[in-house]
Design a protein that fits this description.
With 597 residues, this protein is mainly α. The protein has 30 helices and no strands. Helices cover 76% and strands 0% of the residues. GO terms for molecular function: snoRNA binding.
Length: 597
């Protein structure tokens, strides 16, 4: 192994001598490079190879290349690149080849090699990397697309790109993304040939030796790709994706027409088809802006186009009366309403249209829960409070078991200071299952705290503890404790704490809240703190190290504390804590003793 490493280091000497001779590196720096290279070489020649060692070596060589590049620029020296950079590049490629040969499944390693080749313009080497990578990772369409794009855009080889796409489609015959990019590539090829032909004609050159097929120039190859893909890939999303690509090229009107006809014929009942056809009306018939076009004329023309869109949507919801179709219609209306405009008339018209569509969808019983929320928000933003109340009532009728719908209705009533809030809360609790009612009870007690008497609020808290599930009641107990302390003082909260402790489960925050309350008292008694800590430890002592440490801190810092109890508490903690928590406790306790915690 040592001989091999010595040989590799000797191979570096010519490039290092050149670096010193031309003044890019000093003698001291050359020695440092040799020492570092020696250490890195030993790591990659071991029996047990590690990927990190190869990555570190490659990164070192890349950094060296970047440093040489900067120093060349600084001193203005651009010679001897073959003797210096070429040697380092060759070594980096060799390292990448060894690493990817050892860890073939690491795609990121392959991509790093690809990125390096692109950065240093190593086209011949990159072609080899792609070839090897695709032989191993033929199951990844994204890699095929990357390779084909490089062939097309960098090497300007349409034939190689086409060959790669055809190979990829043998492995992935139903991959939409592959077909889309293949389709795009054929259109780019056609556009490139059209530009070449135009330039030759403008230069009045003889086209005899160049064969420009009219079919290829008109995108016939892309049409073949599309037809083949349409037979294998179903779904309107693919058709729309291909159509959006075709629209990027100005010579594809015939192809666009074919895709559009296929879309309407095969997917006439799909909401996305209707959505596209309706939105298309915004683009059709648009006036070309001129210097004499007035703002009023622009507004009028935009209003007419939007009306045409809505006419298509109206036909769509009649033909395909589904929830998804109404969602497309409403989404379009909301998008238009949210667009900025200086015309108040146009904005008002968009608002009225949006509210009308919401109402029609509601009357058809095809309005989803999220859309009800959007409808309500729009009404509240438009100060239509009475209509908002009607909408929330309708929403809770349609989705009577939805907690979010009831919350939405209750918040509107609370905001409007309605007299029906209590009745609505009762109705909500009756309809919604006990599991999941916590948000409703939380909202109810929040409202009651600011509106009702203390007695009514306390009765509501007690009722919530009985009505919620044990897991949800934990949160209500914390809120109840806090509210009693704020409104009735220490003595009552202490009695409540004792009472609630008997009604498990309780949370750690519940105990911490009571400890905090005790510490806020002028005559904070350690006897009470011990009681609260002991109760908390019975519940959470086996799973929480901080609780034990806080107990020890109180004994050490409280005026009535007994530092001699700390040893006993430490011993109990070591016995009670589970698994790795013991080690965690010991390290934290050590920090506490040394004053670092």
């Amino acid at each position: 192994m040592a001989e091999r490493i010595e040989q590799r280091l000797e191979d570096r000497i010519p490039e290092l001598e050149q670096l010193e001779r031309v003044g890019l590196f000093t003698h001291k720096e050359i020695r440092a490079v040799l020492r570092k290279a020696s250490a890195l070489e030993y790591k990659i020649q071991r029996r047990a190879l590690r990927k990190e060692d190869f990555i570190n070596y490659i990164q070192y060589e890349v950094n060296l290349l970047e440093l040489i590049k900067k120093r060349r620029a600084r001193i203005g020296y651009s010679f001897k690149k073959d003797e210096i950079e070429h040697s380092i590049l060759h070594r980096v490629h060799s390292l990448f080849n060894r690493a990817t040969g050892k860890w073939k499944d690491d795609v990121q390693l392959w991509l790093s090699h690809v990125a390096f080749c692109k950065q240093w313009n190593a086209k011949h080497q990159l072609s080899k990397v792609f070839s090897t990578m695709l032989a191993i990772h033929s199951n990844k369409p994204a890699l095929w697309i990357m390779a084909a794009k490089w062939e097309m855009e960098t090497r300007l080889s349409s034939e190689s790109a086409r060959h790669l796409f055809l190979r990829a489609l043998r492995f992935h015959p139903e991959c939409p993304k592959l077909y889309q990019e293949y389709f795009r590539m054929e259109l780019m090829h056609a556009e490139k040939q059209r530009k070449e032909k135009k330039e030759f004609e403008q230069a009045k050159m003889d086209l005899g030796e160049f064969n420009y097929s009219e079919e290829i120039l008109n995108g016939e190859m892309a049409r073949i790709v599309y037809r083949d893909a349409s037979q294998k890939i179903k779904g309107v999303e693919f058709q729309l994706a291909v159509l959006s690509i075709a629209k990027l090229f100005d010579f594809t009107q015939g192809l666009q027409k074919e895709i559009l006809e296929s879309l309407q014929a095969r997917y006439a009942d799909d909401p996305l088809t209707w959505d596209y056809m309706a939105r298309r009306e915004l683009e059709l018939g648009a006036l070309q802006p001129t210097e004499h076009t007035t703002k009023q004329k622009k507004v009028s023309e935009m209003a007419q186009r939007e009306e045409r869109c809505c006419a298509v949507f109206d036909e769509a919801v009649g033909t395909v009366p589904t929830e998804d179709m109404w969602k497309c219609y409403i989404t379009f209306c909301l998008e238009r309403y949210n667009r900025k405009t200086n015309s108040e008339e146009l904005k008002q018209k968009r608002l009225e249209r949006t509210l009308s569509v919401f109402s029609k969808a509601h009357e058809s019983n095809l309005l989803s829960e999220p859309l009800y929320k959007q409808w309500l928000q729009l009404l509240l933003d438009s100060s239509l409070s009475e209509k908002a109340v009607e909408v929330t009532e309708a929403a809770t009728r349609h989705f009577s078991q939805s907690v979010e719908m009831w919350q939405m209705r209750l918040r509107v009533l609370i905001q409007l200071k309605s007299d029906d809030v209590t009745m609505c809360f009762e109705e909500a609790i009756k309809h919604v299952k006990s599991k999941g009612t916590l948000p409703l009870w939380t909202l109810w007690v929040e409202w009651s705290e600011g509106t009702n008497s203390k007695e009514d609020t306390e009765a509501l808290y007690q009722r919530s503890l009985r009505a919620t599930t044990p897991a949800e009641s934990v949160t209500m107990k914390e809120r109840y404790l806090d509210w009693i302390y704020r409104n009735s003082g220490y003595k009552k909260v202490k009695r409540l704490f004792t009472s609630l402790c008997e009604n498990r489960p309780v949370s750690l925050d519940f105990f911490r809240k009571m400890i905090q309350i005790e510490k806020e008292q002028e005559s904070c008694r350690m006897l009470h703190l011990r009681e609260y800590f002991e109760r908390a430890l019975r519940e959470f002592g086996s799973t929480n190290t901080d609780l034990w440490l806080d107990y020890i801190k109180e004994e050490l810092s409280h005026p009535q504390g007994k530092p001699e109890n700390c040893g006993s508490i430490h011993w109990r903690a070591m016995k009670m804590l589970q698994g790795d928590l013991v080690e965690d406790f010991v390290s934290k306790y050590t920090l506490l003793q040394t004053g670092h915690l």
